């Protein structure tokens, strides 16, 4: 199957956390996003609700906790001791440095069908969204719920077949199941499957 690379920038901590959540379910970012994009194309909408996790009322932002109606960027204060040596004597000066915290940004690389990428990009553009924004939105929802939103159709096949997800026994069992099905005439003929794959090349 012909694929193209899709590269988006995303918060590194968010990327790692969501990757771990997906991995426990036998999925990868690629398989989850491929399923999401195909559903967006089919339904022409974002197939999940965008919401913050339930929080106590006293922790919910209110106008009184905002600065002129806007959130304040979180700040970090560091203390640095500046030792200056003057004519053999040392004096110590403590300096406070305050600056805005900056999110660590990472790169997410996925392989995707070029038609899926083009159609998804066009549909999202009509909604005023980009693929990058949509990936961040769904990633945040997965982070909040520790699961894929239930309204997203899970992919039928797990694309990450490796020892990190399947044990050798699991993989051998799946291969044996496939061989048994082939011997009993179940499933699609290999020639038909290969011809279908060659259409995308």
Would you give an account of this structure?
With about 200 residues, the chain is an alpha+beta fold. It folds into two domains: about 1-55 and about 105-155, no CATH class; about 165-200, no CATH class. About 40% of the residues lie in helices and about 20% in strands. A two-stranded antiparallel sheet has the order 1-4. A two-stranded antiparallel ribbon has the order 2-3. A hairpin with a 2-residue loop joins β2 (about 75-85) and β3 (about 90-100). The longest helix has 16 residues, at about 170-185. The chain starts with a strand and ends with a helix. It holds the Pfam family RelB.
Key phrases:
about 20% strand, globular, 2 domains, two-stranded antiparallel ribbon, alpha+beta, single chain, about 200 residues
């Amino acid at each position: 199957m012909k694929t193209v690379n899709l590269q988006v920038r995303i918060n590194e901590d968010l990327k790692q956390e969501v990757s771990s959540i997906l991995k426990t379910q036998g999925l990868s970012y690629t398989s989850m996003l491929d399923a999401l994009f195909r559903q967006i194309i089919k339904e022409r909408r974002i197939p999940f609700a965008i919401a913050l996790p339930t929080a106590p009322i006293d922790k919910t932002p209110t106008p009184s906790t905002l600065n002129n109606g806007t959130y304040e960027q979180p700040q970090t204060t560091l203390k640095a001791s500046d030792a200056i040596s003057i004519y053999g004597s040392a004096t110590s000066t403590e300096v406070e440095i305050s600056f805005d915290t900056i999110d660590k940004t990472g790169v997410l690389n996925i392989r995707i069908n070029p038609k899926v990428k083009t159609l998804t990009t066009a549909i999202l553009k009509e909604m005023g969204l980009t693929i990058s924004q949509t990936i961040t939105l769904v990633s945040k929802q997965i982070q909040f719920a520790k699961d894929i939103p239930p309204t997203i159709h899970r992919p039928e096949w797990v694309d990450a077949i490796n020892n990190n997800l399947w044990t050798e026994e699991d993989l051998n069992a799946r291969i044996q199941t496939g061989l048994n099905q082939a011997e009993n005439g179940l499933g699609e003929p290999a020639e038909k499957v290969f011809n279908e794959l060659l259409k995308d090349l």
